[in-house]
Specification:
By secondary structure, the protein is mainly beta. The chain is about 0% helix and about 55% strand.
Length: about 425
């Protein structure tokens, strides 16, 4: 829904040109501002501000002379800030009663990071409208609307992520006469994925011990590192954590290949072009051992991108188009429903390689699954009223068998 700032004497509405408010770095953000007044007001000007920045902020405590002091760690990284005058000259003049419509367009820089909202920082892009009143002590009319930006992370440019990985762990359990080895082999088909893909967990367990193994855990974890000046803060978030009942009897070998991890809407790895926030992902497989023994843990780092490997295209579905309500553009006319970002990719800028991947099924654009408590600037009162979840491209996979080759066989199985 389009946010509208409404008071008794006026309203401000901001709409963007596509119905998911999502753009790729390098594209042109277009939209319309509608300002309606029911009383004449003396104003200086009406402006539209396009802004992109990263802000990190957290607090720590330390003891100094027997007293506890709170230290705030914060730093800002600006990406752009452009202001356009829609009405007025900066000098006081009366804005008559009426309904005013202004179109705006801004070309995003090509090298900016994807949108991100976390507990201790954000990468945020906004369009703000300010109607500046002439009276010194009067409150200005302000409306802010955030939008999502996606940085292209093309997995095809990272061929090392196409290589499979085989992770093994051995553990000796028991004492003296009951001692035996448990050997686990987990094969990851590759190391690079996109949101919406399904990662198969191909696990082989060779249980040479006297213990019966009955539990298997699979988790996907996101790690964020926030940096401010000479300090940094790490935060781990569990994206998914599934527990399964398995049966692997003593002195047997079993193959467990029906377990999968599906990647939900998430920001791409590393958050490239951002100096203050870094994001990594890993998958962990845990084979539970009963008794006082420590479980066997196998872990692998993965990379989440925004353009999948070309050989995975055949396994993706084309999203079913969803209708959108006509949007009012301010002059009494309605525009036809747009399926940009739902049925087809958002209209491309030169940086978006549609010509290079014409056969790539378009993704949907879905709100981030994992959101922290929003962080705000001290004077950002308007934004506090608008919780925002960035959108990321999500591909609809049809059949994981069409995407992944079977893992190499384990000797003796």
């Amino acid at each position: 829904n389009t946010p509208v700032f409404v008071m008794s004497s006026h309203s401000i509405e901001i709409t963007f040109s596509n119905n998911v408010d999502t753009y790729y770095a390098g594209q042109i953000v277009e939209g319309t501002v509608v300002l309606e007044t029911t009383k004449p007001k003396e104003m200086n000007c009406v402006t539209v501000e396009m802004k992109g920045e990263c802000l990190v902020k957290w607090k720590t405590s330390k003891s100094v002379g027997g007293k506890t002091q709170t230290v705030t760690h914060t730093e800002t990284e600006p990406y752009f800030k452009e202001t356009y005058v829609m009405w007025g000259t900066g000098s006081p003049q009366v804005l008559p009663v009426g309904r005013y419509s202004y179109n705006f367009a801004y070309k995003l820089p090509s090298h900016i990071p994807s949108s991100f909202e976390g507990n201790y920082g954000y990468v945020r892009y906004t369009c703000s409208v300010k109607a500046e009143k002439a009276a010194y002590f009067s409150f200005n009319w302000v409306q802010t609307r955030p939008f999502s930006v996606i940085t292209l992370v093309d997995l095809n440019g990272l061929p090392q992520l196409m290589e499979p990985e085989c992770i093994t762990r051995n553990k000796t359990v028991g004492v003296i006469f009951n001692r035996g080895d448990i050997h686990c082999q987990w094969t990851l088909p590759r190391k690079g994925f996109v949101c919406g893909e399904i990662i198969p967990i191909n696990l082989i367990v060779d249980n040479g011990s006297s213990k019966k193994l009955t539990s298997l855990g699979v988790s996907l974890t996101q790690t964020k590192v926030y940096k401010a000046n000479a300090s940094q803060k790490e935060e781990k978030s569990t994206i998914s954590n599934d527990q399964y009942i398995i049966v692997c009897k003593s002195h047997t070998k079993e193959v467990f290949d029906s377990t999968v991890v599906k990647i939900p809407p998430l920001p791409p790895s590393e958050l490239i072009y951002c100096r203050l926030i870094n994001i990594t992902y890993n998958i962990k497989v845990v084979v539970g051992i009963p008794g006082l023994h420590r479980d066997i843990k196998l872990k692998s780092d993965i990379t989440i991108g925004s353009i999948p490997f070309r050989n995975a295209f055949s396994g993706f579905n084309v999203p079913v188009p969803l209708p959108s309500a006509p949007s009012y553009v301010g002059d009494g006319a309605e525009v036809a429903p747009s399926y940009a970002g739902i049925y087809a990719p958002i209209p491309s800028a030169p940086s978006f390689p549609l010509d290079k991947y014409a056969e790539m099924p378009p993704p949907s654009y879905m709100e981030a699954m994992l959101m922290g408590e929003p962080v705000f600037e001290e004077d950002d009162k308007e934004q506090k009223q608008q919780p925002f979840a960035p959108r990321y491209p999500v591909f609809d996979i049809e059949d994981r068998a069409a995407v992944y080759a079977p893992p190499p066989p384990y000797p003796g199985v």
